[in-house]
Automatic annotation (TrEMBL):
It is an enzyme of class 1 (oxidoreductase). GO terms for molecular function: 2-oxoglutarate oxygenase/decarboxylase (ethylene-forming) activity; metal ion binding. It comes from Roseobacter ponti. Its EC number is 1.13.12.19, 1.14.20.7. The keyword Iron applies. This is 2-oxoglutarate-dependent ethylene/succinate-forming enzyme. Belongs to the iron/ascorbate-dependent oxidoreductase family.
């Protein structure tokens, strides 16, 4: 069973909400969070906005193809991400945007803070996506405060680490599963997320499957307005394995599907080495290493 958590209860420190989040973080790996500051209307607007972008001709999207850059901002064409080395590159396409650094920030040269690349169409795309980015980061921070409490740390434990978040907002577009797809082809192949917390909105249709600890796959879906959350590799490392990163995938089926993950990651100079280990592992290096493994254009050949 995937826990269902009320965000307002979590903010209030409600015991049940906190203990449900503890179960999600340490056992099931996934939860559904509802009653956040983001309404179903807002999420539908974002999904419709991404859909209008994905419907543009490929030549148009190619003008902001991330493959021509050394970073991961803009359009990711089908086949541009390979999250599992034993599977083929994913057949999904996607659009990634990131945190807007002030222009004089000394971190401006880092790929993890690369400037977003915006399409000329559809109208209003940038405004809708940036507004959602800001508000989704707020919702994610609220979940992290609950997580801190759930793992017996002070509620503000993570706050200082996320003031310049390497947060990446993605729109995923899965077409109908292609007729040519083999058992090595996926919408997105089996993977764990790379960062700390993923806040996932979807169009409500099924497709996501979560690996059960005992084996097998559990379908998880949530209507727009509810969010699927899970934890990534960085949080697993940082928490000394207390919080777990859980593998998941989308095989794809007979319908198109849009999902919108916010990958919520701390500032690049955060030490995410296991707490108490005395080691140093910078969040920026951790994240960049995972990007270099999985984005085809960043893979070392
Ligand atoms: O589309 C989904 O439901 C999951 C997407 C996902 O796992 C990802 O983008 O990391
Ligand atoms: Fe994922």
């Amino acid at each position: 069973m995937i826990p269902m958590i009320d965000a307002a209860d979590l903010t209030a420190g409600d015991k049940t909400a906190v203990s449900d989040l503890r179960v999600a973080a340490t056992q099931t790996g996934f939860a559904v969070v509802r009653n956040t500051a983001l309404s179903a209307e807002r999420v539908n607007e974002v999904i419709d906005t991404y859909r209008a972008f994905f419907r543009l001709p490929a030549e148009e999207k190619a003008r902001i193809d991330m493959a021509r850059t050394g970073a991961n901002r803009g359009w990711g064409a089908p086949g541009s991400e390979q999250v599992d080395a034993s599977a083929n590159p994913d057949y999904k396409q996607f659009f990634d945007s990131g945190f807007d650094l002030p222009f004089d920030d000394p971190r401006a040269g880092l790929a993890v803070y690369a400037p977003s690349r915006w399409p000329q169409a559809p109208d209003g795309f940038r405004e809708v996506i940036q507004r959602y980015y800001t508000d989704a980061c707020g919702v994610a921070m609220g979940v992290l405060r609950g997580l801190a409490q759930a793992i017996d740390a002070p509620r503000d434990y993570f706050d200082g680490a996320f003031d310049v978040p390497m947060a990446l907002l993605r729109g995923n577009y899965y077409p109908e599963r292609p007729a040519w797809a083999t058992e090595k082809d996926f919408g997105i192949a089996t993977h764990t997320d790379y960062g700390c917390l993923t806040l996932l909105a979807t169009d409500g249709s099924p497709g996501l499957e979560v690996r059960r600890r005992g084996g097998g796959w559990l379908p998880v879906s949530a209507a727009p307005g509810a969010f699927i959350i899970n934890f990534g590799d960085m949080m697993e490392t940082w928490s000394n394995g207390v919080v777990r990163a859980t593998p998941h995938r989308v095989v794809g089926g007979d319908h198109e599907r849009i999902s919108v993950p916010l990958f919520f990651n701390p500032s690049s100079d955060t030490n995410v080495a296991p707490i108490g280990s005395g080691e140093v592992l910078l969040a920026g290096d951790h994240l960049q290493a995972r990007f270099a493994e999985t984005y085809v254009h960043l893979q070392k050949k």
